[in-house]
Write a structure and sequence with these properties.
- α1 packs across α3, α5 runs antiparallel to α10 and α9 runs antiparallel to α10.
- The chain is 68% helix and 4% strand.
- The longest helix has 24 residues.
- It is mostly helical.
- It has a two-stranded antiparallel sheet with strand order 1-2.
- The protein has ten helices and two strands; from the N terminus they run αααββααααααα.
- It comes from Paenibacillus macerans.
């Protein structure tokens, strides 16, 4: 069979999201090219090992997202100029967790650099407040508060970047990240909160050292990605 339409059989409950993600990955990487006709419903059902309703819903999601178009009597095609119209938060919720964290890594490295260059005293106070709350939550083993204060600390760093687009992007990411952090914190007793890295990141931003801020952000995120 053509590798362009070679997929992994679905084995868990998020059937529609999994079908959408696999198709979207083929589109993003160029395996399915603009103007290509995708396989028929029966062919996709066999490839993915799912029922007709799952395939129809997945196709509907991608049509609604602006990537696929149905041509009556001819089939379903990748649009000639596919531009995703799906809200970012919905796209992130469907994505694999590792994909979200890899994108977060790219975003947060620039956030920490800009925060070190642009932070003011109010930013530092805001970061310190959430960092202290995070430490207290860990001492008390309050996992909900830990997850909340961790995200709020990173949001405070984003706010210090003074870049409206970056702040809005990270705020969108933070909704998905908070869900992921809660899951990681509940399911893995060995989860390392990397408190030392967070303190060093704060100090680097306080000292307005962008290189050190990037260093500690990278160490923190690579540690979490390794856990995942």
């Amino acid at each position: 069979m053509n590798d362009k339409f070679s997929f992994k059989t679905i084995s868990h409950h998020k059937l529609v999201d999994d079908v959408v993600n696999q198709l979207q990955l083929k589109i993003s990487t160029g395996d399915i090219r603009p103007g290509d006709k995708i396989p028929t419903e029966p062919e996709l059902m066999e490839m993915f090992g799912v029922g007709r309703s799952t395939i129809r819903e997945a196709i509907r999601v991608l049509v609604h997202a602006g990537l696929l178009e149905k041509k009556q009597g001819f089939g379903t095609y990748l649009k000639a100029s596919p531009v995703i119209q799906e809200p970012l938060v919905q796209r992130l919720h469907r994505a694999e967790l590792m994909e979200v964290y890899e994108a977060r890594k790219m975003l947060e490295l620039e956030i920490s650099r800009l925060a070190a260059l642009r932070r003011d005293e109010e930013d530092l106070q805001n970061m310190r407040k959430h960092l202290d709350e995070r430490g207290l939550a860990l001492q008390q083993n309050d996992r909900e508060l830990y997850a909340k204060s961790d995200i709020e600390f990173h949001m405070a760093v984003a706010l210090a970047s003074k870049n409206g687009v970056i702040i809005d992007l990270f705020r969108t990411f933070s909704e998905v990240l908070s869900d992921a952090l809660r899951k990681l914190n509940k399911e893995y007793g060995s989860h390392d909160p990397h408190s030392y890295y967070h303190e060093q990141l704060y100090e680097a931003i306080k000292q307005q050292d962008p290189e050190l801020a990037v260093k500690w952000t990278l160490l923190n995120l690579e540690g979490t990605i390794a856990e995942l």
